[in-house]
Amino acid sequence: MDFLEGSLFCGIPIFVGETRKFKTSTLIVQFTCDLGRSPTENAVLPFLLRRGTRLHPSLGEMNRRLEGLYGSECEVGVSKSGERQILTFRLETPGEEYLPEEGVMEQALATLAEVVLDPPLDGDASFRGDHLEGEKDNLRVRQEAVFNDKAAYARLRCVQEMCRRERYATARYGRKEDLPGITGAGLYARYREILRESPVNVFLVGNVPLERALTLLEGAFDAGERRPREIEPTEIRSAAGEWREVRETQNLEQARLCLGYRTGMGRGDYRFWALAMANGILGGFPHAKLFRRVREEHGLAYSVASSLDAGKGLLFIDAGINAADYERTREICEKQLADVREGNFSDEEMEKVRAGMLRALRSSLDRPRALIAAFLEGLINGRKESPGAWERHVRAVARDDVVEAAAGIGPDTAYFLHGGE
Questions:
Q1: Residue 219 pLDDT > 80, yes or no?
Q2: Exposure check for the chain: N or C terminus, fewer CB within 10 A?
């Protein structure tokens, strides 16, 4: 399935994946914001808007409205891609051909448009105070939840130390210390600014032709006059070549090790798929080097894996270990990456990773949200490619490509979270 591109009012692009594969139609509206600009206000907004509209001013009324549309679902979220913050509004509604009446999709799209464009207000230019305070509390819970997940906390702290002078250090939900200063009037002003200036992408996956999608959405959405502002590109750095070590103590039994590397390339680089395969050989799969050497052969980790942050060009090795095994675990982890750099991996290892990557790509085709997320990652990083192109890239990666990509992976920050003496 390929995405066909059209254009809505004010030049907003829409990407339509017409398919009979699903019994639902999925519409996603995504606003892209600069992560360095009002990130906490941005993070509150989608959840606040989902709480109610002018016509359906409570969460209960909104849910009853959606239930009346044959169980349509509306969800919102906040994510981070490189140094961009993505505000997502998703609507999933039954396919028109499965419903006993016409016009349901139009009504569902109008309801999503209400969520995005027509919130309940206090006066003319302020969000409702009770709604706002409730969502500020909810966001505070989301921000604090990472502290209790030590694997996520170690990764966050490693990122904060690696990127301490970069926009990327900001978490996707913003900063807890910003919450008290957010007011109904100030947030409404920021909301109007986002509608006017933030780049927007619209995606529709389902049995809906592009022409019909354009007709439906032109009638449902009118964001008013827009003057989109170009967002500064994500800064992708190469490694300095030396480790910076950061240790932190908490009251915990299992220690967490997070090794942060810079790759010098992001999702928009033509070498990205070779880098992704290098990560797979290193630790992206259960049959990869890290799991086999660190966990199975040496018994040094409760868990160990590597992952790639494509938007920012970072690679991480994460492990749950006994604190006493820190030096030995780190040494073996670094040796596995050195082996990938030097081409010390078998053809069988490489083909297992290739097969795993192809399975993951095909799996994304079965989930509209995953498919759209992968397409957007490439789109905002200058690689507007169809799912078919992704598979061709993976199949084309050769051993020399992997070695070349891995050669650019260099050390940056070693973060160690442990329980003290």
A1: no
A2: C
- Judge whether 225 lies within some domain: no
User: Which value, to the nearest 10 degrees, does the dihedral of the CA atoms of residues 86, 91, 92, 95 take?
Assistant: -130
**Short-list 92, 108, 86, CA closest to 30:** 86
Alpha-carbon distance of 404 to 162, in angstroms, equals 24
How many helices (H) and strands (E) would you count in the chain? 14, 11
Least Cα distance to 319 among 299, 340, 342, 338 occurs for 299
Tell me the mean pLDDT in the region 240-252: 92
- Beta partners for 149? none
Strand bridging mode 244-249 / 410-418: parallel
DSSP category for residue 11: G
Q: Which amino acid is at 110?
A: A
pTM, two decimals, is 0.92
Q: Which amino acid is at 106?
A: E
% residues pLDDT > 70 (the chain): 100
**Does one domain contain both 167 and 282?**
no
For 44, the 3-state DSSP assignment is helix
Does one domain contain both 300 and 197? no
Radius of gyration from C-alpha coordinates of the chain? 23
**Residues in contact with 128: Cβ distance below 8 Å, sequence separation at least 6, in sequence order:** 57, 120, 121, 122, 184
Instruction: Please report whether residue 229 resides in a domain.
Output: no
Asked whether residue 294 falls in the same domain as residue 414, the answer is yes
Q: Both 108 and 216 in a single domain?
A: yes
Q: Is 190 found in the same domain as 261?
A: no
Domain finish residue from 187, 220, 253? 220
Helix H segments across 118-229? 129-148, 150-162, 184-197, 210-220
